[in-house]
Amino acid sequence: MVETTTDTIVLYTHPDCNYSDALKEELDELGITYEEIDLSLRPDMWATVEQLADGERITPVMVTGEVVEIGFHGVG
């Protein structure tokens, strides 16, 4: 069962990252909306990703309200 939330999901992705693709595909299949920030188009946002991921440049990073999930572990 997928829990519903009113928090906006922000998803930091990179086109060279298969895990980013997998997470987006799963969210789309579940009908979960999100705001995608493609880091290849917005390299200025890497500083935000590094802050969220304890200094690492890693994707995907999914932020839902106060919750930060680093990498792809499946949704649900």
Question: Can you tell me about this structure?
Answer:
A 4-stranded mixed beta sheet has the order 2-1-3-4, with helices on one face. It has 2 helices and 4 strands. The relative contact order is 0.28. It is an alpha+beta fold and 76 residues long. It has helices at 18-29, 46-52, and strands at 9-13, 35-38, 61-64, 67-70. The longest helix is centred in the N-terminal third of the chain and has 12 residues, at 18-29. The N and C termini lie close together (7 Å).
The first-to-last residue Cα distance is 7 Å
Main sheet record: 4 strands, mixed
SSE series:
EHEHEE
- Compute the number of helices: 2
CA-atom Rg in angstroms: 12 Å
Which percent band covers the strand fraction? Answer: 15-25%
Mean pLDDT: 91
Strand order, largest beta sheet: 2-1-3-4
| Helix share bin | 25-40%
User: Outline, from the CA principal axes?
Assistant: globular
Compute the number of strand runs: 4
Structural class: alpha+beta
pLDDT under 50 segments (min length 5)? none
Short description:
Helices cover 25% and strands 22% of the residues. With 76 residues, it is α+β, with helices and mostly antiparallel strands. Strands 2-1-3-4 form a 4-stranded mixed sheet, with helices on one face.
Write the layout of secondary structure elements.
Elements (H helix, E strand, L loop, with lengths): L8 E5 L4 H12 L5 E4 L7 H7 L8 E4 L2 E4 L6
Parallel strand pairs: 1-2
Antiparallel strand pairs: 1-3, 3-4
Observed structural traits:
76 residues, alpha+beta, four-stranded mixed sheet, globular
